[in-house]
Amino acid sequence: xxxxxxxxxxxxxxxxxxxxxxxxxxxxxxxxxxxxxxxxxxxxxxxxxxxxxxxxxxxxxxxxxxxxxxxxxxxxxxxxxxxxxxxxxxxxxxxxxxxxxxxxxxxxxxxxxxxxxxxxxxxxxxxxxxxxxxxxxxxxxxxxxxxxxxxxxxxxxxxxxxxxxxxxxxxxxxxxxxxxxxxxxxxxxxxxxxxxxxxxxxxxxxxxxxxxxxxxxxxxxxxxxxxxxxxxxxxxxxxxxxxxxxxxxxxxxxxxxxxx
Length: 260
Known about the structure:
By secondary structure, this protein is of the alpha/beta class. The chain is built from eleven helices and ten strands. The strands form two sheets. Strands 1-2-3-5-7-10 form a six-stranded mixed sheet, sandwiched between helices.
């Protein structure tokens, strides 16, 4: 694995660490590497959960590498298979991803966290979208953030570029938990282990339905689920795991998920 991206794998969990001193900023080359890393996670049947974090204690990710941009990296350049940061545009990623935000999540770094399914934050973590001050658009955050927190608070962050600490992010529901820095990764792994033991086909169905229903009326989405028009739902309803879940419930035992 590239030096800028470190991975640690144990069982069905992979930890992906962005390591680009001093601020874990992402240039085009790093974004492409991240995309290949998350693509490999998506396509590996043995892997079930990913944790994303940043090296060091100060930065989770400072977003777009402005020094690289000044050196010739085009804003509309090739970010790789998953778009910026490898996650937010990666098709078919139907496995849980946990962000462990250990420091500043700035601009595209905040957007990287928003691309994850669950966000754990260190008590020292902070979040900001300073693009407004540079005269540009925080594109992914502009789309996602008003759907993740109260509209007027999201607009405040987008319009002013102000900082939001971990406690405020938790208060608005942007992060799931706030932890002491020394406990952040341990909690991320504890949560990942819990999800690893869960039903992968159900997780896939949840992620696909949530993703696709965003562009559908509720009734239309429900109709598509009922008619098995989502591939993940169709696969789930014909699976061994579905029957295993029924049997385990009837027999009052823990299910054994096989992902098929």
